[in-house]
Amino acid sequence: MRLFSRLSPFVYLAIVLLAITFFADAQEPKEKNSPNETDSSLLDEIESLRQAMVELNRDLFILEEDLLFPASTQIAVYVAIDIGEYFVLDAVELRIDDQVVTHYLYTERQVKALGRGGVQRLYVGNIAQGDHQITAYFIGEGPEQREYKRAVSIDVSKGEDPLALELRITDSSTKQQPEFSAKLL
């Protein structure tokens, strides 16, 4: 019994379905089939069970997402950069109402991917409806290879709909400094 408690629910379900199929087939009187016909029908049944398991897994994943992150409390924060010579991103720390919800360290490859137009989903979570302050701290290397830490804050009002926020880093050639912004999507 200890073995079954460690199995994933999907594996357990597959074992049960295979056992039911096997015993149901064993109970029915069968005509004499050639071994190849029996093997191919068994393979077809296994393939249909596998396909059903994949569909069930997909449906359960969607339900789990809906339960964990209902639309009325969901918030998603994305990071995008359009930088060149004034800032090299090293880390981002995200706070919601002065509580750290995530801290992310970037590799060189990730920074290059963001610089080529990539967008990273930094955080997905839940917040209560109402007013909130979201603050992002950007840490990296600024002009003249100096350590650089800047913050950007935005006040948001969470309603019934999901909330999406974009954090963006851009170069300002007039100021010769990076600019950090946060906007609702």
From TrEMBL:
Q: Which UniProt keywords apply?
A: Coiled coil
The protein depicted here goes by the name: AraC family transcriptional regulator
Which parts form a coiled-coil structure per UniProt? 39-66
Q: Which domain of life is it from?
A: Bacteria
**Presence of the UniProt keyword Coiled coil in the record:** yes
